[in-house]
Design brief:
InterPro entries: Cadherin-like_dom, Cadherin-like_sf, CLSTN_C, ConA-like_dom_sf. This is Calsyntenin-3. Keywords: Calcium, Cell adhesion, Cell membrane, Cell projection, Endoplasmic reticulum, Glycoprotein, Golgi apparatus, Membrane, Postsynaptic cell membrane, Repeat, Signal, Synapse, Transmembrane, Transmembrane helix. One of its GO terms (molecular function) is calcium ion binding. It is a single-pass type I membrane protein. By secondary structure, this protein is α+β, with helices and mostly antiparallel strands. β1 and β2 form a beta hairpin. α12 runs antiparallel to α13. Strands 20, 21, 22, 24, 29, 30, 31 and 36 form an 8-stranded antiparallel beta sheet that branches. The protein has 13 helices and 54 strands. It is extended and about 195 Å long. The protein folds into 6 domains: about 100 residues, Immunoglobulin-like; about 60 residues, no CATH class; about 130 residues, Sandwich (Immunoglobulin-like), CATH 2.60.40; about 220 residues, Jelly Rolls (Sandwich); about 150 residues, no CATH class; about 90 residues, no CATH class. The longest helix has about 45 residues.
Length: about 900
């Protein structure tokens, strides 16, 4: 909220006693240069200052700033005939809470209370008594008096008195004097009683006929998107029966708003404002006289003795790329100054530019009704060339839009959107070159005359010294606004025509039924419409079809002043009538805001290889952009309506053009070494769009249709480099239209990066658990790309493990059984040897000792590791088998030696046979 609201300095108002609305002149409107921003550019209300003021101010339209003053209670002329107080407007601040509200200056309001005839006359005395002598005629017997309580002389004066009682010999005049009309006799009626009434003054004045326009409204409301609106649908000209033979009427609509429509018309950005709002960083306009247009745009007045020296090295890059390709654009209002006449040249802009090849110089100036452009390609070698145009618009004291395209040696001038080729080209080779120093001046130019003395003192040196003070001359006298320069490239013809023509203006919609002898002319800017005819009735019909047209569906709200000027010619020049001007205004109402909706897939996942591909993964593959207002104005069904429909269709096209979209990141910025966004910048340049791609955001700017923006945004892709450990990203997308006035919703997209995991890089327990996952089990979709182990390679792993486990367990069970059998055999041998030993009495202690060493397997526990490899189980089984075989052989040898050869035991044969089978079955 940078600016304060603005209102008039003084208002005159009238209010009737029986009404509560104050009629103000001028109407109460508050303007704010922050418009059309919400809150900051809106007027929230008015405040009235003063003790005991019986009025209040209300806001009718926050967007237009229209207000109304009304009485809080009935006003009384008899108590106060006039009221004086001050009023102040305030904006809505920076948000709904009204923070940082700014107030306008205080304006003085004078309100006069107009009286109405509300009081009846009242006699001073209710009863009058008087005695007279008989036989006399009196000039005045008695005077009665009545008074009126109204405050104005119009209603407070007593007009006349009247005797209501009939058939009495008395008479009363207008002053209340009563006299007798005949001599009174005492012998007759001794007492006369009669009633007298008084009448106050109520003059009914019949106005004299005055030629003028009748049946028009001062205030005309226009709803954006309504197409054409008749300005004077019921107007007619009152001539008071005066014969006329020629009528000329001019309708003027002040629509020359300075506010730029560059984005709406599709102009590329990059223009530089040469006359910005005064600020600490742009202070060269601070000393200029400032005016404001109806839409609060800034207008600078050059009085013929001041100029603006733009500091080239103070952050203004107006000279970058400004060599032989650039576009100058300015609104100018200029008239021939009587004191200067048509002789002196007035400079609009004068500049010396430094480029890689050297210094170049150019200037734009007006000379009477001519406009001249001087261009010096190279001060060191080339010769200057001057291009001249002779145009009436230069000196008609009206606002016009000028755009100059330089593509040397071609120069084209556009005035109000119409192109003009130079009328004359001069080779001004004798002009002294300016100093070779970058400089830029608006409203005047410099000369080297101060350096003549130095040149005379040193004939060998004709170069000027940098830093010398400049002599300023050729000052401009007029108004300038919206002065911009676009270096490096030219605006197209379509853009320049749109900059001037795609606004509101006057329109005539009834050429088909135009009467005989009628002429209608509309200027190129559609701000001035002229009608001419010789018949009053035909003229009335024609002017009733003058319409206001606005091609923008979302027009800038505000007030457009309107004026109707009429000139007539009579058969008798001496008694010819004069038609007063008609002044009113068109109020463009606040349009309904469009709803721009972005929709599409908000979450998806892809494998890392997809993101690592050269084209990356699209961010918005199925993006849809819709607008809630898809309205197209149709022609009215009234047969008398002949409004144009093509203009309203064009307005809908402009409505559905976006002027920018931005993709921002949620969280940390992009790491350029690992990730980035991809978009073809060449394709955007072909469409006239600009691309800014940084690590924090990606923006696309320029006016294009929704379909084009959809196509472009669907091509934006996200790419990551190979091996980057990135897993997810979130992006925000938002778009705007109408110079950023309306914004879309914030569409969020979340992307997941799915990585493949390497088997060899993980511990064995992870692999082992993965090996026993059921083959019919499906992973969830978000993990479909995370393959921990290949299912094809592990298809046979469970079968091999089962075989190994079965073989190992079977082998160990067999060894246990063999051991038990071996122990049992040895036990039987010991029992067999114990009986002979007892008889012989020599081996009892030995048998008991051996029996104590037998293996007790009642609590035997076998632990098997199922994950041991098949090979290790085979090796271990072989070693165990060999060890036990050798041990058995040794035990057999010992037992054989200890046994008696004469009595061999049959169990020994069985034991050896079983061991042999066990060996052979285990070793094959």
């Amino acid at each position: 909220n940078k600016h304060k609201p603005w209102i008039e300095a003084e208002y005159q108002g009238i209010i009737m006693e029986n009404d509560n609305t104050v009629l103000l002149n001028p109407p109460l409107f508050a303007l704010d240069k922050d418009a059309p921003l919400r809150y900051a550019g809106e007027i929230c209300g008015f405040r009235i200052h003063g003790a005991g003021v019986p009025f209040e101010a209300v806001i009718l339209d926050k967007a237009t700033g229209e207000g109304l003053i009304r009485a809080k209670e009935p006003v009384d002329c008899e108590a106060h005939k006039e009221h004086t107080f001050t009023i102040q407007a305030y904006d809505c601040g920076e948000g709904p809470d009204g923070a940082n509200t700014k107030k306008s200056h205080k304006a003085t309001v004078h309100v006069r209370v107009n009286d109405v005839n509300e009081f009846a006359p009242v006699f001073v005395e209710k009863l009058y008594r008087v005695a007279v002598t008989e036989g006399k005629l009196y000039d005045r017997i008695l005077r009665v008096e009545a008074i009126d309580g109204d405050c104005s002389p119009q209603y407070s004066q007593i007009c006349y008195y009247e005797i209501l009682t009939p058939n009495i010999p008395f008479l009363i005049d207008n002053d209340g004097n009563i006299e007798n009309t005949e001599k009174l006799q005492y012998s007759g009626d001794r007492l006369y009683r009669f009633t007298v009434t008084a009448y106050d003054l109520e003059i009914q004045v019949k106005p004299t006929c005055k030629p003028s326009w009748q049946g028009w409204n001062k205030r005309i409301e226009y709803t954006p998107g309504a197409g054409s609106l008749a300005l004077f649908p019921s107007i007619h000209l009152e001539t008071c029966d005066e014969p006329l033979w020629n009528i000329q009427a001019t309708v003027e609509l002040q629509t020359n708003h300075v506010k730029s429509l560059r984005k709406l018309c599709g102009a590329a950005s990059g223009e530089i404002d040469l006359l910005p709002v005064p600020s600490p960083t742009a202070n060269w306009t601070a000393r200029l006289s400032v005016h404001y247009s109806q839409d609060s745009s800034l207008i600078y007045w050059f009085n013929g003795s001041q100029a603006a020296q733009v500091p080239v090295m103070n952050g203004l890059h107006a000279h970058e790329g400004l060599s032989d390709h650039f576009t100058l654009s300015v609104w100018m209002k200029h008239a021939v100054v009587p004191s200067k006449g048509r002789r002196e040249e007035e400079t609009v802009i004068c500049s010396t530019v430094q480029s890689e090849d050297g210094y170049s110089h150019y200037s734009l100036a007006v000379h009477g009704c001519r406009i001249a452009f001087l261009y010096w390609p190279l001060l060191e070698s080339a010769r200057p060339v001057k291009f001249l145009w002779k145009l009436e618009q230069v000196c008609d004291d009206e606002w016009h839009h000028y755009a100059l395209n330089l593509e040397f040696p071609t120069v084209t001038l556009y005035v109000d959107g119409v192109s003009y080729d130079p009328a004359l080209i001069h080779d001004n080779g004798l002009i002294h070159p300016p100093r070779q120093e970058p400089s830029l001046m608006i409203g005047a130019c410099w000369t080297e005359e101060k350096n003549k003395e130095k040149i005379k003192g040193n004939e060998n040196s004709t170069d000027t010294v940098q830093g010398d003070p400049l002599l300023i001359h050729h000052y401009f006298h007029g108004y300038l606004a919206g002065f911009t320069v676009r270096p490096g490239s030219l605006e197209s013809r379509e853009v320049i025509e749109c900059l001037y023509a795609c606004r509101e203006g006057l329109d005539y919609s009834d050429f088909d039924s135009l009467g005989k002898g009628m002429k209608v002319h509309v200027n190129p800017s559609q701000s001035l419409l002229t009608l001419e005819g010789d018949d009053v009735e035909t003229f009335n019909h024609a002017i009733q079809h003058v319409a206001y047209m606005n091609s923008l569906r979302f027009a800038t709200p505000g007030v457009r002043p309107l004026r109707l000027t009429t000139a007539v010619k009579c058969f008798s020049e001496e008694s010819c009538v004069s038609i007063p001007d008609v002044e009113g205004y068109v109020v463009v109402l606040q349009p309904d805001a469009p709803q721009i909706l972005l929709s599409g897939t908000a979450h998806f996942a892809h494998t890392a290889s997809d993101f690592e591909a050269p084209d990356g993964v699209p961010l918005f593959p199925n993006l849809q952009i819709t607008c809630s207002i898809s309205h197209q104005v149709e022609a009215k069904k009234d047969e008398n309506w002949h409004g144009t429909v093509t203009d309203t269709r064009m307005s809908d096209e402009i409505v559905h053009n976006l002027d920018g979209c931005e993709i921002s990141l949620v969280g940390d910025d992009l790491d350029p070494e690992r990730e980035y966004l991809l978009l073809d910048g060449a394709a955007l340049q072909q469409r006239g769009l600009e691309l800014v791609n940084t690590s924090a955001y990606l923006t696309i700017t320029g006016v294009e249709s929704i379909a084009v923006y959809e196509e472009i945004l669907r091509q934006v892709s996200y790419h990551i480099n190979h091996g980057a450990a990135l897993y997810e990203r979130k992006f925000h997308l938002s778009c705007t239209e109408m110079n950023g006035r309306y914004s879309s919703n914030e569409f969020t997209v979340e992307m997941n990066v799915l990585h493949n995991m390497n088997r060899a890089a993980h511990p064995n327990h992870i692999l082992s658990s993965q090996q026993f996952i059921h083959r019919g089990h499906h992973l969830p979709p978000e993990l479909s790309g995370h393959s921990l182990a290949s299912t094809h390679n592990n298809a046979m792993v469970p079968s091999a493990a089962t075989i190994i486990i079965v073989v190992c367990v079977g082998f160990l069970a067999l060894m246990v059984i063999l051991g038990i059998l071996r122990i049992h055999s040895l036990h039987r041998r010991g029992m067999g040897q114990e009986v002979p030993g007892a008889a012989a009495g020599g081996h009892t202690s030995t048998g008991s000792k051996d029996s104590d060493m037998f293996w007790d397997d009642s609590a035997l526990t076998i632990i098997v590791n199922p994950m041991e490899s098949y090979q290790s189980c085979q090796e271990r089984a072989a070693e165990n088998s060999e060890g036990r075989a050798n041990k058995d052989m040794e035990e057999d040898d010992d037992s054989t030696d200890s046994e008696t050869p004469d009595s061999p035991d049959s169990n020994d044969v069985d034991d050896r046979h079983i061991i042999g089978k066990s060996d052979s079955s285990h070793r094959y």
